[in-house]
Amino acid sequence: MPQRRGFWHTNKGFQMSDRPVERTERARDEGVYVSRTEEDKKQKEKFTHLADNSKQILFATFFSYLKKMFDTFSPSKQLVGKVIDEQEIIQNLQKLKQLLQKLSSKDLSSDIAFAIELSDTWCTLNNNFENIEILERKNLQEVANFRHMITTIKNYPPKADHCFGYYLHQHAGKDWLPFPFIQLLEGLHKDHQENSQKSILSSWIKLVDAVIDNFKRKWSFNP
Q1: Which of 43, 48, 104, 185 is the right S-S partner for 109, CB 3.0 to 4.6 Å?
Q2: CA–CA dist 186, 189 (Å, integer)
């Protein structure tokens, strides 16, 4: 590209300079020229926008992961996913069996300590059952005998205003020992003394044994 000589102004007028003057030629279709400062600014805004989008995607992924965790471990909507202590459940069942055996051999109807222990054990087992029932909701047959045991004991005697399970659930003995509950305990003991093989307590003990045996097979439990 040919070079042009420059001119500068002095007191003597304009004089030619040997210093070349650069000339930049652009094609007509090059578009609007954007200064370097403006272009840098736009590039910076572009990368800032990309960074913001990346943060939004990251936060969205993180909160989605948290939601899945809460959906998995929150009680589903009550207690879904709650960890089950298999050994503790079997021990609670064995404790209930032992308490029923004590009542069958001795009249403990007025024993406050016995009433408290029986009520506490019963409430704990009910919580155990609720947890297992939710976790086994796709295979409820696995807990059918557990449900049958809970229902049978809870609803004794049939058609009563307040059944056995009501007093157990209200922690009878801890804050109160109502007379109807004392009568129920006394009646269960006398029933067993009259006919131990066919007594209500014997049938309950068999139900508890069935649940224990089922869970031992299911969980490969070794005492």
Answers
A1: 185
A2: 5
At 11-70, the pLDDT tens digits run 444 445 455 544 444 444 443 334 455 555 555 555 555 455 555 665 556 556 555 554
Pairwise CA distance, residues 129 & 116, whole Å: 20
pTM of model > 0.70: no
In one-letter notation, the amino acid at residue 8 is: W
DSSP-assigned beta bridge partners for residue 17:
6
Q: What is the pLDDT of residues 57-109, one digit of tens each?
A: 655 565 565 555 545 444 443 444 345 788 999 999 999 999 999 999 999 99
* H-run or E-run covering 1: none
Among 197, 154, 162, 204, residue whose Cα is nearest residue 183? 162
Q: Where are the domains of the chain?
A: 33-73, 86-219
Contacts of 86 (CB under 8 A, 6+ apart): 215, 219, 221
| Rounded Cα gap, residues 137 and 51, in angstroms | 45
Q: Which residues on neighbouring strands pair with residue 176, listed in sequence order?
A: 172
